[in-house]
Amino acid sequence: SDRMKITKIEAYQVDLPLVDGDYCWADGKSVSVYDSTVVAVHTDSGIVGFGECVPLGPNYLPSYAAGVRAGIKELGPKLIGLNPTMLKALNSEMDYNLKGHPYVKSAIDMACWDIL
Fold this sequence. Notes:
By secondary structure, this protein is an alpha+beta fold. It has helices spanning 65-79, 87-97, 102-115, and strands spanning 6-17, 23-25, 29-31, 33-43, 48-53. Strand 2 (23-25) and strand 3 (29-31) form a beta hairpin.
């Protein structure tokens, strides 16, 4: 709907255990659990969309799980009142309000796609 608006954005931390044990890569680096962030984008029409971001670890890529939640805390309030179905405008607003950090924005974007 053209009039749908985001009313609230929530982020939940979820530990995802690895079924086959630690995931290891070069230089002795490893993770034993995936630190996931699940994002819920609530709308004034009662529709809630969900997205997720699961960085592999802070020493694997330039992204980290606590950074997802910090970024959503920073960015989320700036998106309240926007239409989650107008994805291009929403992504432009995210880029304007938070430079870089695409891993943070991906969970919100995914939740808005879920609303569609």
